């Protein structure tokens, strides 16, 4: 009796738990199953999970909401890509320090929850508000600072009030797992995953910029290896693509070969995916499958190659979005290795 092989998560660290999705083997999936979603943590899992969500600060009516109370509010479901800002960090040259993600710190699913602006409307945001701060229940030590820190991030008020920014309590129709941020987490479609705070415990409306270490030290683009001038915050996901088949360094018989994968962006939608076999001198357009009702979802693309000549080949793929952004030949190197989005490449041998 034959057993069907199953892919597994690739462990990058044990404590805190950081594991990559087997994204190369999840072909043509609209939703990544829970067991295959990547895991990105800064600290060990929280020992105490919040039983209520508080909203305070520059509001007229401070709130303390239970999960049941949030579920009683009007809900919405959004299909969205969730990508770690450090995804593909290992591809930078030289590789920056940090988790050496290759390409699997990436997933997509259906998130269900309450629009954040509905909760903020119930609290009554007062004039002068500038940012909204989100406090997670996870905490621990940082190697670069003394003391115990919680994972805390903020959003500009306009982004917090966007109709698709949500407090999620379900993934793919099931309650959030502990790994996904049970009981509540923030979901910020179009932004890298660091903005989507897990195990959400407190929301604080402020009249000034938040400067915690996960806001002002981490998740900043530092363009220089040894100085901080020119730094800017990591926010919107860059246009990107991934070749899921064929695998890098794989060998294939000559004949028809289907090249396929996914492409995604945080601004607008993917409008074109192109393939090159000659180092980028010429490009051929791939077929793109997109659902216009899901603007935050990745698209599937494929290109039929008549690989009739034996030899070694490098397949290049680049995506373009509706904002006019196209993947560049080389990544914009930065000291912490965020936002890798260079042209996708695999090498194959045709025999």
From TrEMBL:
SUPFAM superfamilies on file: E set domains (SSF81296), Oxidoreductase molybdopterin-binding domain (SSF56524)
Entry cofactors: Mo-molybdopterin
Family matches, as Pfam families = Mo-co_dimer (PF03404), Oxidored_molyb (PF00174)
The residues covered by the Moybdenum cofactor oxidoreductase dimerisation domain are 235-349
| Residues in Oxidoreductase molybdopterin-binding domain copies | 52-213
Q: Does the keyword Oxidoreductase apply?
A: yes
Q: Return the InterPro entries for the record.
A: Ig_E-set, MoCF_OxRdtse_dimer, Mopterin_OxRdtase_euk, OxRdtase_Mopterin-bd_dom, OxRdtase_Mopterin-bd_sf
What this protein is called in its record is Sulfite oxidase
Q: What is the lineage of its organism?
A: Bacteria, Bacillati, Bacillota, Bacilli, Bacillales
